[in-house]
Fold:
Amino acid sequence: MIPALRLGARQFSTSVVKSAQVARPVPPPKGDVKDVKSFLYYIGRNMEPLASKIPSWDAMFTMDTHALKSLGLNPRQRKYLLLWAERYRQGRELSVIKNSGKRK
Structure:
């Protein structure tokens, strides 16, 4: 492959990644969800004890997986928290996603 084309593809992919990292709005607390602890309580899966690790409401909605990893959350917890943060941002009601148990 021609080196110039390879460089162009890298620059393009970098610009696409950077444009995807647009700051999303932080939703205001509403209803029974008043703070980080209550949010974690309502999404279930024993996430409530993690409230002491997350500094604020704004931080919870602006952190990415790398920031959550630095707080000591395991991959499953990070994925679940980010999933529900995005759903809450979109206006969906909080509910527990039942774990189907261990895979065989």
About this structure: The chain has a mean pLDDT of 83. The chain has five helices and no strands.
